[in-house]
Amino acid sequence: MVLLLSFGFLIVLAVLLLSIWSTVRAYNVKHTIDPPEDASKGLTDKKNP
Fold it and tell me: First CA to last CA across the chain, in angstroms?
């Protein structure tokens, strides 16, 4: 029973880490292809067009 619980915990942890990693990777890829305007223009230019 304890072995089953520990395996279940490991599986849940692995799935959680995988989902977080894929989200971060997709976010990084999106920003390398299309960088946000704040980085090039600055926040002040965006607020006062």
Answer: 63
pLDDT digits (tens, 9 = 90+) for 3-18: 999 999 999 999 999 9
CA-to-CA dists, residue 14 to 6, 7, 10, 30, 46, angstroms? 12, 10, 6, 24, 40
Candidates 17, 14, 15, 37; CA nearest to 25 is 17
Query: Is there a contact between 46 and 38 (Cβ–Cβ < 8 Å)?
Result: yes
Cα 35 from Cα 27, distance rounded (Å): 11
**Amino acid identity, position 6:** S
Using a cut of 0.70, tell me whether the model's pTM lies above it: no
